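Readers of this paper often ask what the protein records in our data store actually look like. Below, we set out a record of this kind in full and without editing:
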Amino acid sequence: MTDLVAPRPIAWVSSVSDEGRRNLAPFSYYQAVCSRPPMVVFSVAWWPDGRMKDTLANVLATREMVINHVTDAHAEAMNATSAAFPPETSEWDACGIAAEPAAVVAPPRVAGALACLECKLVHALPLGAAPRQTVSHTGRGRSGSFRRRQRAAPS
């Protein structure tokens, strides 16, 4: 099914735990779903051993996230953040990614990203079924701030 629903944009989601640990991870189940109010949806699968991923735990706890736009310039760094880092390890630090403050939420933006959506969680819906665990969660977030950088003019 996933090959039929394509292309899939990448949501490079930054979040912060309720203890203040920063997290940054890519998700390929992501889409704009409403323009008034501006809303996006993204889905987070759980780890195969049944543990909740850090991004989902953070967003459920703080109800905030930033979805950063991925360009070719950030592709390698974005791929590096998909590794299974332990919760106490920040992908920002481990992968050497620069951050800048967001305007309306606590999680930072990726410095140099062409665009980002600063979002507040509106609704989280458990999806799928497996023995003793939820397979994934879909979160719907309302964008409170949209930032877009101008591309440099070609020389």
The two ends are 42 Å apart (CA to CA). DSSP finds three helices and nine strands in the chain. The helical segments are 54-62, 75-80, 91-94. The first strand starts at residue 11 and ends at 16.
